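// run 5 | inverse folding | seed 20
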């Protein structure tokens, strides 16, 4: 179906809609840097476009022609906590009525809108009531759902309200509710959680291959109540350096020979510049320099709670259906190192990583970056965007 992309930003709606087979006929975006990224990423030549939605005249809207779907994440700052939630008192909050104006002229069979969770209870729910009643007065039957990006394959806790308006009199296929699709079930549809405890282990994502242009898998852990420990130890050597603008490698600390149940070993690693593997000595494993010589890169430090191996947390062995999985607790078998003059460094997310968190492929980020958009704008654009994965899942249900 043909869709119009309002408040287009960098094209999160567009990528999701096009992935489901829909066709974009035009877009509206006022921010010049967002337009720069949008036009670098998407093939927009010959499409209808406008900058300021509030200044578009009726005859210009009519010139767009037939439109099946109007999409738009109308500005959310007026309803978000960070934006002080002024709602319709903020000029950005009144931009919803421009969406309604476009809908009244083009009469698409579907409206597909997005906003922040705070829209639901802003002004004690009055703002959301006005939006719903406005759409209903235009002849649209409305359904909506609160969805979280973390349930759609990206490691980001981001709740947003999605609104679907069906033009009254058209054939209607309900879009919502959409249920989480990233949980494994048994034949009866019930979710199960393994009866194991993972301690100081490395768990690989099972059955998937991480592609260069994909989203990185997350390590998952669980705290259970089994009396038997499930030890997973693997040596995976990481040498060499990455490209200057690439994502930093993670430091893997592992024993050359692995661990067994009758062996105790403590190792403290706190220098992020170290590379290589851990070798075992009579006292403590030390991290060797890249030359594999006997030049220790770390030194022994006292640790808090040295008897941590004897103190374990017991949790429930099973969880009820519908509950989220346990997370790995910070209390592990190694205790907490007490160091002096540590060279700890916490790095911020790169612009590329922020785009990945919104489901954008690397090629899209590269095109925006190569067009000359600054890092500060790339950060802003990622923060203002919708999550592509969520849009794509909804778009598949639009008929």
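// decoded
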């Amino acid at each position: 179906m043909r869709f119009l992309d309002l408040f287009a930003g960098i094209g999160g709606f567009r990528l999701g809609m096009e992935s489901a087979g829909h066709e974009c006929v035009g877009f509206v975006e006022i921010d010049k840097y967002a337009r720069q990224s949008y036009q670098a990423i998407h093939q927009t030549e010959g499409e209808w476009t406008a900058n300021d939605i509030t200044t578009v005249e009726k005859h210009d809207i009519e010139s767009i022609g037939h439109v099946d779907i109007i999409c738009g994440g109308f500005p959310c700052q007026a309803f978000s906590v960070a934006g002080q939630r002024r709602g319709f008192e903020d000029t950005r909050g009144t931009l919803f009525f421009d969406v309604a104006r476009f809908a009244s002229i083009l009469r698409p069979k579907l409206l597909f809108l997005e906003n922040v969770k705070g829209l639901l209870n802003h002004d004690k729910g009055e703002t959301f009531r006005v939006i719903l009643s406005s759409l209903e007065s235009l002849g649209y039957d409305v359904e909506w759902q609160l969805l979280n990006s973390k349930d759609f394959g990206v490691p980001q806790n981001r709740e947003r309200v999605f609104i679907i308006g069906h033009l009254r009199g058209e054939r209607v296929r309900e879009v919502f509710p959409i249920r989480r699709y990233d949980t494994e079930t048994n034949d009866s549809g019930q979710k199960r959680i393994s009866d194991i405890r993972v301690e100081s282990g490395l768990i690989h994502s099972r059955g998937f291959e991480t592609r260069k242009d994909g989203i990185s898998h997350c390590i998952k852990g669980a705290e259970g109540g089994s009396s038997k420990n499930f030890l997973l130890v693997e040596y995976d050597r990481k040498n060499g350096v990455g490209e200057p603008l690439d994502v930093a490698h993670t430091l893997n600390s592992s024993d050359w020979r692995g661990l067994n149940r009758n062996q105790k070993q403590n190792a403290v690693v706190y220098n992020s510049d170290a590379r290589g593997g851990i070798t075992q000595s009579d006292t403590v494993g030390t991290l060797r320099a890249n030359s594999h010589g006997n030049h220790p890169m770390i030194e022994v430090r006292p640790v808090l709670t040295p008897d941590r191996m004897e103190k374990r947390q017991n949790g429930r062995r099973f969880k009820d259906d519908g509950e989220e999985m346990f997370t790995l607790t910070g209390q592990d078998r190694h205790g907490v190192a007490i160091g002096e003059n540590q060279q700890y460094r916490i790095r911020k997310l790169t612009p590329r990583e922020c785009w990945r968190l919104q489901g954008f492929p690397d090629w899209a980020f590269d095109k925006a970056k190569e067009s000359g958009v600054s890092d500060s704008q790339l950060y802003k654009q990622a923060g203002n965007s919708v999550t592509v994965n969520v849009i794509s899942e909804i778009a598949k249900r639009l008929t």
